[in-house]
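Slides due. Your pick:
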Amino acid sequence: MIFKQVFDQKSSTYTYLIASSEGREALIIDPVLENVEEYFKLLTVLDLKLVKVIDTHIHADHVTGATKLKDKTQCATIMGENTPANSVEIKVKDEEIIKLDDLKIRALYTPGHTSDSYSFLMDNYLFSGDTLLINGTGRTDFQNGSSKDAYNSIFNKLLKLPDETFLYPAHDYKGEKVSTIGKEKKQNPRLQVSSVDEYIDIMNNLNLKKPAEIETNVSRNINLGA
């Protein structure tokens, strides 16, 4: 397997490139429009063919590079079936398997940050989007977010995975690149709660500013960045 993690400075977004070393087929998770040329360079250097691109949800803080990648490579676009993006070619269901040569990636419906949030599990690699972050969790105060749904997604689905599962989120704001489910259980301050009501109370009092250009970004991402 080939695995690369690319960081976008402006939005603190992590994009992931995964490929089969045998068949050279590649998949990109959460591409950022401004970084598409960097992805093309990686694909060329590694001699890979991009066949699929996934967005974990409709992002509010950057524009997806999905359409630009598709226009150049004819790759298939993928999101969860709850997405409002009608132009997505493949809408996967909870627990559905996405195949990439000999690799298998399982879609997990994890709403809360947004109503269309999905995470993706490949072996012991969890790509959690904005649902579960390193030492944090995704905000739930816009795009049909729900703190109750987030609690259920995190505590009743993601934290049920083995402790050694690697956590790769869509964002990090402090330079962290990877964690594990076990480490987050012990150290993540948002997870040290005894009930769903306690979690909801924390999320309701974050008082975070909305991302700049949220309306424009969401509107463009519903059209896959076109």
User: Anything to note?
Assistant: The longest helix spans residues 36-45.
